[in-house]
Amino acid sequence: MITIENVRQRAQADARTYGYYLNPDSEFLQDLLEGLKKNEERYGYPSCPCRVASGEFELDRDIICPCDYRDPDVAEYGTCYCALYMRKDLYEGKAPILPIPERRPAEKQTRAYAVTSQVASQAVTGEAPVMKTAGPAAVRKKLWYCRQCGYVVFREDPPYVCPICKAKREMFVELEITPVG
Amino acid sequence: MITIENVRQRAQADARTYGYYLNPDSEFLQDLLEGLKKNEERYGYPSCPCRVASGEFELDRDIICPCDYRDPDVAEYGTCYCALYMRKDLYEGKAPILPIPERRPAEKQTRAYAVTSQVASQAVTGEAPVMKTAGPAAVRKKLWYCRQCGYVVFREDPPYVCPICKAKREMFVELEITPVG
Amino acid sequence: MITIENVRQRAQADARTYGYYLNPDSEFLQDLLEGLKKNEERYGYPSCPCRVASGEFELDRDIICPCDYRDPDVAEYGTCYCALYMRKDLYEGKAPILPIPERRPAEKQTRAYAVTSQVASQAVTGEAPVMKTAGPAAVRKKLWYCRQCGYVVFREDPPYVCPICKAKREMFVELEITPVG
Question: Is residue A143 exposed (0-12), middle (13-18) or buried (19+ Cβ within 10 Å)?
Fold first, then answer.
């Protein structure tokens, strides 16, 4: 069973690792944590409480909290899209919380939305489920490595920021493996 | 030469990275650090001061401090098995320190114990060393990746928690490499 | 455009991740951040403000800030080579800042210097650029993994310290990939 406390501790541990703070407004924070809990119960993963998930893991991967967009958003605006994670100056009220434009590519939003609305219309009309327009097969993952520190990841696209050395996305290149022997 | 200060600094650096605290009881902490130092001198790696190591790296890998069980134990009980690493609330005395059940699989304990007792009995009887029952070859490592953030590791089993995005062990799947060209 | 604030935030985020502090002397810190900014504008990457870069990424990779030598230097001396990153005791003035010997191998310094001086002499004589003595091809990267935690990197040499579990460099071994199917 997932409890609000589990969700809170995981978020807090992650905030500490990255030097972030959780939103100090306890009521607002509680709402976000409940959203994460609800999504984890519904989908099996804690997708972003401020975005619509498709329920298909591969389409939602980039918006599982902490989402792919958190680090560049905290760097540029001081908080993530939901204002769950904050930089110290905003946490301490020394800088204002600004509206944050959606950084998720429109193409990913559209793919997720197509699945969501299809599921919804089937629920309404009672039609048999049809072939999904975009499945996991649509996502091609590759090995990437950070040219600065050597960090290796297996993803569709490289991360915005290297979690090890903080190099920018442009520092990642594809890693092609040639067999040994 | 390994000094207590080296051991302390490494533990402190690691505590900071994960947002943990070292046990505030300075005498108790000193004992643990001395245990780590003694193990590092004896085996070449700082195996857990509260567990019996075999001296075979591959069998002890999961109990090299910080052990594989630390993060789930701190998450569930607030401290690691030894109470070396602690969560903030326990460090500050706001929550009690509870006994922690051994999370290490019995099978791993048995393998390590078999090696330890064999070495001990040889020491007593003066017999020639025999073929060890379990060697490094018994451990088959694989590449795994975190489906959430793409983190890649080469281990026998995936970690309990992804060190990068904190996803649970179930989020890891085997990464099969197909050669390029 | 790169601003001093970008450079400062990246350094601060990285300091927090590793439990370090930025130099408290604000004027000295400002000079280092300006050095990083200037190098990033000139070379495309923020090479160490206290070392001479060649401008060839593969030759400078180990001195891109945070450099490969930061973690062992902070562990041993309490600060990095530039005194940009500091351990808490030195940050708080409880321990003195000592001169730090250059840990970068002489061979790497020589390679970088050969390129730098060649470029400089071409600039002076106006000669046509000649084949560079050491190019990216001279660097052979391999996959390495940490035997303790399984962390995988793709680099020329393994890191001094595993960024995930803090194991020493000796814990890394080459990872040879055999194809599946």
Answer: buried
